[in-house]
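user: can you give me the structure for this one chain? tokens are fine.
assistant: on it. calling the predictor now.
[tool input]
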Amino acid sequence: MTSELPTIRPATAPHTTGTKTQTPRTTVAQGVAGEGGAGGLEGAFSLLLETSKRLNHLPAKPCSFAARERLCETHYTPPCINGDGFGIGWYSADIAKDAEPCIYRSTRPAWNDENLMQLSEKIRSHLLFAHVRAATPGSVVAERLCHPFRCGRYLFMHNGNVGGFDKVRRKLMDRLNDACFEFAVANGASDTVVCFALFLNTFPDHMTTVSPDVLRKNTESVVELIVATCQECDVQETSLLNFVISDGLTLLATRFVYDPLSPHSSPASLYFGAGTAYESKRTTTACPGGAVVAGTGGEYGMTHTDRRIKVVIVTSEPLSDNHTDWVAVPSNNILVVTPDLHLLLAPIGSSASMSSALENILSMERKLLPIELQDALGPVASRAVLGGIEGGREGGRAGHKGQNRRASHSPQKGQREEGEEEGDGMEGGAEGGGMAQRARHVILGHCESALALAVSGPYLFSGSQDGSIRVWNIETFTLDVVVPCADEGHSVLALVVHKDVLYTTSSDNKLRAWGMAGRKGGRKGGVEGEGEGEMSIGLLGVVFIEGMGHPISLAVAAAPGEEEGGGREGGGFANGNETVYMGFQDTSVRRMKGSVVRFPPSPLLPVPLSLPNTNTTDPTSPISVSSPYTSSSLSPSTTSLHHHLRPPKSGSYTPQNSAPPSAPCSSSSPSLPERLGLGDYESHHCGPVTALTLYPPYIVSGAGDGFVKVWSPATKTCYRTLQGHHGSVLTLLAGREEGVVISGSRDGTIKVWDMESFSCRRTLRGHNDDVLSLAIGAGWLFSGAADGCIVVWRLETLTFYRAFQQAEQAVQSLVVSSDRHQLLFSGLEGGMVLAWDMPHEVSSNGGGREGGVGGRKEEEGVNGTEFLRMEECLSELVGYQSVSVSEDDFHKEECWRCAKFLTSLLERLGASVKMVSVVEGRSPVVLARFGNDPSKPTVTMYGHYDVVPATERTWKTDPFSMMAINGYLYGRGITDNKGPIMAMIFALKEMKEQGILKDMNAVLLLEGEEEVSSEGFRESVLQNLHWFRGTGLILQANSTWIADERPCLTYGMRGTIHLEVRIHGPKRNLHSGIDGGAVVEPLNDLVGILATLVDARGMVLVPDFYAEVEEVSQEELELFDAMNLNIDAYKASLGVKGLTCNSGREVLAGRWRQPTLSINQVASSNPTDSYSILPKAAMAQISVRTVPCQNPTRLVDLIRAHLRHEFGKRRSPNDLFIEVKKVGDWWYGDRGAEAFGMAERAIEEVWGQPPLYVREGGTMPITAFLEDLLKAPALHLPLGQSTDNAHLPNERIRYLNLTNGKEIIKNILGQVGERSRMVLQQAVRATVEDKQKQQQQLQQPQQPHSRNGSLGGALDDSFRPPDLCLAVPQARRASSVPSSTSSSNLNIAHNHLTPLQTEPLVTRPSIARSNTPTPPFSGFAHNQSSNGSRGGERGGWTRSPPLSPAHALFGCGAGAGSGGARTPTGGFGDGGKGGKVGGTQGGGGGDWDGKAAFPPL
């Protein structure tokens, strides 16, 4: 068994089970007193397990003393206390060496037997007999008369009697041989003992193992002999022959009644229960995060982790109050449980069907696979990948030197390796090999086995042992809703989507119908409240089906004339004329109309699928601590359907989950489902019907007898029986296009049945374990087995292709999504659902496989082929441990390997690539350029591939092996900054493939030292300035949203200054007891001066510290207010009791808008933290966060002067040292610029809502450096959420954020390209018009100038390039730019780079100093125009040719006064106001030399 059974002491003193104290009660059952008094009223059960367990772990039900179903001939016997004996029997754990059973019998009550308690603690057995003998008045009470009885290797119990036993005893005993006769006499010769002796009489040797079929035939012969003897003796009394027999391997039970006076007499009761385990039912609890968490306690019951049987209980009455677990054995039937736990049931005397089934099952022998296939199915590289969830950090960090890297998805590697050979036919080949494939996404949520999967449009439905159905959005892999779909403690067994109705069956023996309506999904639905209409799901009806066991399998057939097939793609709402087929444990296949499962028509009460995520749990942990595969923190709220149930009839009603299990929930009391093949017992299955599928016009069933039966719905008869499997048929699949039905069995084989000839076309052998599930799609056949292996078969040739395994858990269910998404989903025994990419087989000509995924047209969107490659490359990128802060040689080499991977990837995408390294021992900078057209604008995109260490023990996954879990991608650097890098790269790739990148140029600037002050980065950029020529926009994505729900756009960051303050005193450390009080201590001096820097409310006390700080504008305060910061939640997240301010706007202003000074560390020369050492020196680290307008040099001088002044006041003889360690510039963007407008439009189009404008309290000096160097505006585009845990354990990024971020980048770049085309078209048109006007002016007299200096010829306004920014003058000096590139030297530095812009293309705002008003907006982009005369000095005016594309696109203003000089870039110098150029006012005059063309690289 897969899990340990709970500790249950059968029939002992009161004990505690879980958290609930119960009074044990003995198990009793139906029985009838025999005339001889020995049969008595008895209750019994027997239990057969897959593996041995201790007796106190075996389930003896604590039930009532009363025998509720006892019959005493014609009337019920009142219940009585069973104080007259009991017995148990068991077998050795090693039955091969010791086949003789043991018994323990006593006349004392079982519930008060200390010996039984002691035995149960030590005995281990896979089989248990237990019997309580309740004797009728006057019968003898003796241990030798207590059941069970044993002889040789056999155990025997009898519940019932032999009618007229006094009349038939002599004749029956006369048929015994001497040994059996002596056995009968020695044990009292009661009717039970004589029956056992007759059974023993059929064997020459009582220790020899015989087949189950021989046992069955001999048992039936005993029943026939007793009946014949009663008839011969003219016995009129009723005989109840409920035998339970076992040889330690096989278990047999009969339920038989012989009544010569009434052919319809009731037999003694007999039930069986079968499942995975019989244990204390786990209760389910809805947590605040929405997860359904399993607990312990509750009533005992049968659990189902899959369709296989691992425990069988045969009992004279139900062992639990929940009768849904128990199936009544039909009258005059025999039940056989084989040694490998195949359960068979058939009428006594129907020897043909039962013998055929037993012969079929017992011939099961799992054939060894071919050697080459065994190698292919051996341990694959991806098998241990999921161990990262459980093993955490040990999986990927321990001993990085020499560790084996996981299988690479690098672009250099193809899908197939050299030397792979195509597999042969039936046995399958090793082509494809052990597929080093890992699941694309791990979906967590179910705490127990995922038994059933179904797909409808963009939604995946998963039904679980935990009783819930979870609805997942396939496009984002996120959970939309949790639907409780079974009574508490029961499992969802099967689900089928038919049009807009979801049908489910569960172990509470209920069939439910759910109606679905509304939208079909979309990426915008990822944001709360957004989407293309709401989808709803509502309960249509429930039907309770009693007496047939659990409905294990399910299929739905469309009404005649309607289109077959499930899924919402079929369109329309099911009208109730469909037929629902179910397979039951009682071996029957039954059907009913869909309309029976509906309440009377009424408006559908919806349950929205897209619910707000109310998760308030710790976001840093992707997996719940209680279970490595369960995550309450990743689940939205559970949705109760109590409010959506309609009453079954007028009046009050009981909610679904509180209804008694035996109470029907339908609108009326429908008749029992109609059984197929009724009356034709030979056509019935002999085992539980575990699989159903539709192959119109047939319904096909597979069962525990190993047979596949084809039923004709029209005649309700079995049309054909398909034989070939030698084990239970666990799964069926109809391939209608191929004309086949495919079956998977416990014998490890897959059979392909031709539905025209009804013959086996092919047997596929590719599994070493039971085949549990099948799926078909896109030309592939998928099979899942109990060992967790999934095998891929070519459907066209029925040959082996590949095999893969990610978790050693049984694959309970498989389903393939629609053509749009092309994903394979597998449901595992542990509750996980894994999403797999479809195989892509490359043909010899390089094209995709016809009919397969590889041959389909690539689609745009999240799940297109291009994103699959992006995710693989991102997984590879995360796998590089590019930790730049480490001095370890391994990490240094990993940084280089990471850079080379990016270089190789970008080269394959068609970029010009260069690696630059100017500092030895530091990671290189990767430069890549797409496009080299000087007439088009250039966008430079920045990112960094280095990461911080991941040494924390709280990682739940391997930080350097990307894991996709519940819509999130986990791994170190996934959000900072490897995920955004891949979004940029693949945005460019897709634009190039779509032909829209040709309208612009793009540069990627990727560094590897961002986490350690970017050493060497500036030098690398300055040495390669020509790579950035024509840059008009800088794009970065290296920050996160302020929250999780609303996209953001960052427009400002603070700067930083790092200072180190040291005070030195004595030449050596002193003793505080000896020298204390005599010297001035350095640490006292340091603490004293540090105390003068900041007051109790965080205000900096340095004089003039705030002198350059602007007051916060009302507009910005309104932006802060719009963010609705929750102060209490913010304090709780920080773990503090109070803040420096009390309102949300003040908190945000303090974090983003105001400068701060923090003391980060205080240390001393005390090496041992001893209380006796007086340190000779003390040190403090101070960080200052600066804001716009603050000059860092001036602030350093102010702080240095303040500290020296305060230190001087102390008159200390010690020495003070102040050192500047680092200076990083602040950055402030112009929210009114067109670049921000582009970003805002892109975000709103992709996310469906405008972004929040936010600022960052942190610092990215690179932004200001690039902006001032390239004279282009910078955009900060946050992609991740606030809970992405950058630099923390369990770093992640939401799958939807990454893909939508890629779409936003594409949108922004697309807008740049579109504006470029528009401007160039207008420029060409304007040039043509100018030439025409020049010709006209030459033919006409020249017009005089006006007196006010205006141009004599008015400009034609037909050429009006759009204003792309609200340009405002720049008024800050960037300290991040080296002196060599300051304003005085910039033109010199750029003389060799004509295309490099020396004026900003979108200007940053002027931030005035204190009490200085901000200048009005000007049309000039860089140089302000000065007052001058209107008009030029030239004798005629001609329109200037168009500016360079970057200038024209982003609104470069230009103006010239009288005789304005030409600039190196072909612009105009300062001058008076005049004509309109680029949409801004500029001066007339000045020439354009036409030499602004970009030289080639």
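assistant: here you go. The CA atoms of residues 307 and 690 lie 7 Å apart. The chain has 23 helices and 70 strands.
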